[in-house]
Design a protein that fits this description.
The complex is a heterodimer. By secondary structure, chain A is an alpha+beta fold. Chain A contains 26 helices and 12 strands. Chain A has a 4-stranded antiparallel β-sheet with strand order 3-6-2-7, with helices on one face. In chain A, strands 10-11-9-12 form a 4-stranded antiparallel β-sheet. A two-stranded parallel sheet of chain A has the order 1-8. In chain A, β4 and β5 form a beta hairpin. Chain B has a single domain, classed as Glutaredoxin, CATH 3.40.30. Chain B has a 4-stranded mixed β-sheet, with helices on both faces. The chains are: A alpha+beta, B alpha+beta. At the A-B interface, α18 of A face α3, α4 and β4 of B.
């Protein structure tokens, strides 16, 4: 319980006696670990979502290939014959790139026409690329609707849609014009990872130097973080057999290990203001051993059940938090004391600690009405989120696209009138019910072009569609729209939320549909898993709340534990919803970090507050003690992590940019919750006044019982 | 002025049937009617391809569109494996290709001769004395073509085996 002070003298003596052995053992163990475990760092969440996807399993069960579709937009300036020639040549270059199955573009499209007008049934199909620039512009002007995706109105921008089995390395292709490319690189370069490591090291060194005026704090911190990282990912590998580590997932370990380390180091540091280094060591262990144990237990019990959830992403995220928390706890109790026992602190005073009084003075007079309004607003946002989670998942996280393509496969037995009518109904309905669907390209579309070219009006006459099909095959144009048993349909989107279209397609019952592009399959996985992710998160928060209540023997703490963890996530969820930010692994990682840190903060804050109140401190005094011993490490840690996350937004790696932006925002929300809401909630549920008379003007003595 | 109205009336009145004739609507006979007709002449057709779908094509050996089509089919293994082609030589009056039709039918291998003319653009000797059986062939094809309202060259009719999967 929070009022017990464990006796750890013999343990401290043991650590001091065998400190070199402890340090060397850890170093040897870590090096040995790195010999048999080599993680593969990736910066794309594609493989994680694909593993999750039921649609991918359905698609693979039908032996359909799922393709990556990348959009390459070229700024060509004024269109001319010379530029058209270069575009034609570039089309061939793209088609020859390893892994590319086909390329949709203006030059790759066909003009379908009848040469002999009414004298002949012969229909011709020639690539638009063979037309001269002037004729091509004129042609596209007349039939613009079909080519909008490939070229803009003034012919200065052309787009290539590249279908490939693997993501292509765009840097290896000689591109003749300025361009923008839609797909990020999948594999992280070593330099990307080194850069993010340097950002972490730089931020920790700088902040620790500024706050603690020494280097040992940073060196010991980096030591603890590095060893926690190796141990965590090695154990994840042993549990899951997967050596792929998402580059942003390492930040979970950095965040949790750093904050855990700060609780221990900070106590050792400031305790030297009034005590010698040995006593400071004793203090840091006997004051942190229990709350830090509870934080690890909370993550274990709170997130442990998520390990059985059928989702690699949920498993990896929860394992990262649980293992990072356990290893950080172990290292802070063994390696950290062994390391710092070689040093003493010359400047034990921490300047930022003075701001604790400011918080304590203001929050003691908190406004109950405002608190109620805030909690009510949070509850309303949470309920709206829960409603969307259960009844309108596709609206929860938008996936707004300017121009995009969804490809689907439809199995068929025979090309006949019934099939064509089904496709026609599909095309009509999807366009009617989704304004963002610009075009649907299918066997029917191309057959209609052949049919029109042949001046035949009714495609549904068997002779007409068989004739169209005959020409389609004769010109070899059928391979993009059909195989012997499957139709391939391309849905072109324009300025819309792709999730809504994906959801619509998933629920369309007019014909059997299989998604065949990776991006849409990932979209379906996100929509499918949203409920699992949301319910997992909600369950974890409830369990965390329940354990808080048990630790502090207070029913009200269940509510505090739940809300303090939920508040940053709920408001961050609203932020994502309002700004139409799509769900990604980076978002989930940032949320996971917040849960890990918020539960830590709740236990440490609660421990200090309850303990002070138990030993007769006033509410204000208890707040000061709480801010001094638990608030300062949280502030320092959050500021470092915000700096790390903010710096990551400056990198060239999209994944790190995202985690940087989301992490910085969530860290700020988490810090504000810890500093402004959690203390007020602890005051609001404080029942010590009912039992004991308050002692006004009590003397502040942090080292007595805090 | 009355004369002008009268003249206009006469011109409009007499031009109406001409326009109607020009815009005559051609509609393919339903297969239930066209297939029995085709079966009467399919023995006279030149055969290409081995596929399950029958494509009956009326062509004029001197028609450029027919030539284009035959050229594309002859060079296309996939088209030959997916469909069976029944080629009927049916002349267009304006091309005066009757003699060419006789020469092709008279050849030892009429299909090779047809492909020489239409796909390989070879010049062949035009000496021929029409034999009775060739005249019967040509007349039979022409008779069925008229019944089928074959107004284009090439003109195609497709016959698919019921529930037969395309390409198998």
């Amino acid at each position: 319980m929070y009022y017990h002070t464990p006796k750890v003298n013999s343990y401290v003596t043991f650590v001091e006696k065998y400190r070199l052995g402890i340090i060397l053992s850890y170093i040897v163990l870590t090096i040995a670990t790195l010999f048999f475990y080599r993680p593969e760092f990736v910066n794309s969440d594609t493989s994680f979502w694909l593993n999750e996807s039921k649609e991918m399993q359905r698609t693979q069960a039908q032996t359909y290939d799922a393709k990556y579709i990348a959009q390459l937009k070229l700024n060509i300036g004024e269109f001319s014959d010379e530029k058209k020639g270069r575009l034609n040549k570039f089309q061939h270059t793209l088609e020859k790139v390893n892994g590319v199955s086909h390329v949709d573009s203006l030059c790759g499209s066909y003009r379908i026409y009848s040469d002999g007008q009414e004298d002949s049934s012969l229909v011709k199909a020639t690539p638009l690329g063979v037309m001269d620039a002037k004729a091509l512009k004129k042609f596209v002007k007349v039939f613009g609707k079909d080519y909008d995706s490939f070229v803009n109105a003034n012919f200065t921008e052309v787009s290539y849609f590249i279908y490939s089995n693997e993501p292509i390395d765009i840097n290896s292709i000689d591109i003749p014009f300025e361009y923008t490319y839609s797909e990020p690189n999948v594999k992280a370069d070593l330099s990307d990872y080194i850069l993010s490591v340097l950002v972490v090291i730089f931020s920790i060194m700088l902040f620790f130097r500024l706050v603690f005026h020494n280097y040992i704090s940073a060196v010991a911190g980096l030591f603890v973080i590095a060893l926690t990282m190796v141990a965590t990912f090695t154990l994840i590998y042993l549990f899951t057999g997967d050596n792929q580590v998402h580059i942003a997932m390492t930040l979970i370990v950095v965040s949790i290990a750093l904050i855990d380390y700060l609780y221990f180091y900070y106590r050792w540091h400031v305790s030297q203001y009034k005590a010698d280094v040995s006593r400071a060591m004793l203090k840091t262990i006997n004051r942190n051993i229990h709350p830090a144990f509870w934080t690890s237990l909370i993550t274990l019990i709170g997130l442990g059940p998520l390990l059985v959830v059928d989702s690699t992403i949920v498993q990896q995220l929860s394992l990262s938090v649980i293992l990072a928390s356990l290893f950080a706890y172990l290292l802070n109790l063994t390696l950290l004391p062994a390391l710092v026992s070689y040093f003493t602190v010359a400047h034990p005073k921490v300047e930022v600690a003075r701001y604790c009084y400011m918080f304590a003075n203001r929050e003691i007079h908190y406004n109950r009405v405002f608190l109620r309004y805030f909690l009510a607003a949070t509850t309303v946002v949470m309920l709206i989120g829960a409603y969307q989670l259960f009844f309108a998942q596709e609206k929860m996280f938008a996936n707004n696209v300017e121009k995009d393509i969804i490809t689907i496969a439809v199995p068929y037995q025979e090309v006949d009138e019934a099939l064509l009518l089904k496709i026609d109904a599909f095309e009509t309905t999807i366009k009617k019910e989704n304004s963002g669907v610009k075009e649907v390209t299918s066997l029917l579309t191309i057959m209609e072009l052949f049919n029109k070219a042949n001046s035949q009006e009714d495609i549904y006459s068997e002779q007409n569609f068989m004739q169209s099909l005959f020409f389609l095959e004769l010109y070899g144009l059928e391979k993009d729209v059909m195989s012997d048993d499957t139709l391939f349909i391309r849905v072109t989107l324009d300025n819309t939320d792709k999730n809504i279209i994906i959801h619509w397609l998933q629920n369309y019952d007019g014909m059997e549909i299989y998604f065949t592009d990776i991006d849409s399959i990932i979209g379906t996985a996100k929509l499918d898993k949203l409920m699992t992710l949301g319910v997992s998160l909600g369950t974890a928060l409830v369990i965390i709340g329940l354990i808080m209540g048990w630790i502090f023997r207070s029913r009200e703490m269940i509510f505090v534990g739940f809300f303090v963890n939920a508040i940053p996530i709920v408001w961050f969820g609203l932020f994502l919803n309002l700004f139409s930010i799509p769900l990604s692994l980076e978002v989930l990682i940032a949320m996971t970090i917040t849960v890990g840190l918020a539960s830590d903060a709740t236990v440490h804050f609660g421990y200090k507050y309850y303990r002070s109140r138990f030993y007769g401190r006033t509410e204000k005094h208890a707040l000061e003690v709480m801010f001094f011993y638990a608030g300062v490490p949280v502030i320092i840690g959050a500021l470092i992590l915000m700096a790390v996350f903010a710096l990551l937004t400056l990198t060239d790696v999209p994944s790190l940019q995202h985690i940087g932006a989301y992490g910085a925002i969530l860290m700020l929300l988490s810090l504000l919750t810890d500093l402004l809401i959690l203390p007020v909630l602890l005051l609001a549920i404080d029942k010590f006044n009912h039992n004991k008379a308050e002692r006004p003007n009590a003397r502040v003595d942090y080292n007595l019982n805090a | 002025m009355r004369l002008l109205y009268f003249m206009t009336f006469i011109i409009v009145t007499f031009s109406m049937p001409i326009s109607a004739a020009e815009k005559s609507v051609h509609k393919k006979l339903p297969l239930s009617e066209s297939v029995p007709l085709l079966r009467t002449i399919d023995k006279y057709a030149l055969h290409m391809g081995t596929g399950p779908i029958e494509v009956h094509i009326f062509i004029d050996p001197l028609c450029p569109h027919s030539k284009n089509l035959i050229e594309m089919i002859a060079d296309n293994d996939k088209a030959l494996s997916r469909n069976s082609y029944y080629l009927y030589l049916y002349t267009l009056k304006r091309l005066h290709s009757e003699k060419m039709v006789e020469v092709i039918y008279e050849a030892a291998d009429p299909l090779t001769s047809l492909l020489d003319v239409m796909a390989r653009h070879k010049k062949i000797e035009m000496k021929s004395t029409p034999k009775k059986e060739i005249i019967i062939k040509v007349d039979a094809i022409a008779k069925v073509a008229e019944q089928l309202d074959v107004y284009k060259r090439p003109y195609m009719i497709f016959i698919k085996q019921p529930k037969e999967k395309r390409g198998h």
